[in-house]
Amino acid sequence: MKKVEIKPDIHWVGGIDWDLREFHGYLTQRGSTYNAYLIQDEKTVLIDTVKHYLFDEMVDRISELVDPGDIDIIVSNHVEMDHSGSLPKIKELCPNAKIITSTMGEKGLKRHYKADWDMQVVQSGDTLNIGKRTLHFVHTPMVHWPDNMVTYSPEDSILFSNDAFGQHIATSERFDDELCFDILREEAAKYYANIVLPYGDQVKKAMDGLGGLDMDTICPSHGIIWRAHMADILAEYGKWCTSTTEDRALIVYDTMWGSTEKMARSLQSGLEEAGVPTALRNLHSSHISDVMTDVLTSRIVCIGSPTLNNGMLPTVGAFLTYLKGLRPKDRVGFAFGSYGWGGQSPKEINAVLEDLKWQLPVDPKKLQYIPDNDELDGMKEIGRSLREYL
Ligand code: FEO
User: Fold this and answer.
1) Residues linked to residue 388 through DSSP beta bridges, in sequence order
2) What is the set of domains in the chain, with CATH numbers?
3) How far, in Å, from the CA of 82 to the mean position of ligand 1?
4) Separation of CA 163 and ligand 1 centre (Å)
5) Which helix (H) or strand (E) element contains residue 234?
6) CA–centroid distance, residue 260 to ligand 1 (Å)
7) Residue 83 Cβ contacting ligand 1 at under 6 Å
């Protein structure tokens, strides 16, 4: 695939990672891209780079437009190595290029690469004239690292948003109007749920700050470029960053001999009888990064584990560790599980949900060995009763 024109003198020159299936613990079933952009003005500007192993791909695309040695400025919006990994090699091709980055970006790049590069630190609101254009830089700390910033070109109405609005998807299409929006939305939601979720307050602040900008195109650092569905993705981010969920439930569980699964299915029947769409995810077969996409949109989240060795099953423990790190807010929770003796797991799950400050209207429920019909009816009743918390 060749470089792709976004607007006159602005091209996508990134790399496509078709085979990527895992990104620090996040399943990327559709692969990903690392988006770099080249602006040709009086100065030639490269915005971000690609993972180190896609360097040649990026350079081939740049070389269709300019000699890489003619790059004057590299904007490093974010230190994480999927975007800075090719900086050392590209700097060898354009040793005189100045790197523009944030204060934390400069510190991060020095720690990563130990190189004596010419770097210019920009503060939020700083601008840089590159000819016909004046680039604006806005710091977006913790979206999703402390160093993050975005770059805005008012002359082109383009926001180079780095990780914000990204999706892990490898395609030969580059624009949102060339693919099904529902797939893009799902991938953007998964990205938000697994990468950005803990920083909702910072996302809201960044969105408020960027809200007044005249933009018709958002160029993120992963996935497709938004131009037809910009209002849609901004609206989705507006919901996600304020913990606005849907009237639906999620039941996440694992099971040893099927009893906790029976409890989960009865709970689901009760919720559905009360008119609540309810997803059932067994952690034995569902990956935690996919389950998090359901957590993002579900108001009610029920979590079940049988008791094993005085505690919960390791799959449920791993999920709760991941959930605690991502810190979704404002959910209604419920913990349950079967047991033979002891029966500690529902209380342990409940303690994690208490830490998350979720609303917990029903006490944790444990049932011994194999639940009978009356006990399963009780689980159904709990499901029906959760309806009132929507
Ligand atoms: Fe796509 Fe935070 O890196």
Assistant:
1) none
2) 4-240 (3.60.15.10), 249-389 (3.40.50.360)
3) 6
4) 5
5) helix 230-240
6) 38
7) yes
Tokens, residue 30:
């559709």
Q: Look up 287 and say whether it is catalytic.
A: no
* 17 touches ligand 1 (CB under 6 Å): no
Low-confidence ranges of the chain (pLDDT < 50): none
For the residues of 255-322, what is the DSSP string, one character each? Answer: -SSSHHHHHHHHHHHHHHHTT--EEEEETTTS-HHHHHHHHHHEEEEEEE--EETTEE-HHHHHHHHH
User: Which residue is catalytic, options 78, 83, 139, 168?
Assistant: 78
| Pick from 19, 297, 26: nearest CA to 167 | 26
| Residues 34 and 50: beta-carbon distance below 8 Å | yes
pLDDT of the residue at 144: 87
DSSP string for residues in 184-220: HHHHHHHHIIIIIGGGHHHHHHHHHHHTTS--SEEEE
Q: Give me the pLDDT at residue 209, please.
A: 84
pLDDT tens by residue, 132-158: 999 999 999 988 899 999 999 999 999
Annotated catalytic residue: which of 41, 80, 187, 348? Answer: 80
Closest residue CA from atom 2 of ligand 1: 80
CA–CA separation, 202 vs 206, rounded Å? Answer: 6
Cα–Cα distance measured from residue 137 to residue 102, given in angstroms and rounded to the nearest whole number: 9
Task: Encode 81-92: b = buried (16+ Cβ within 10 Å), e = exposed.
Answer: ebbbbbbbebbe
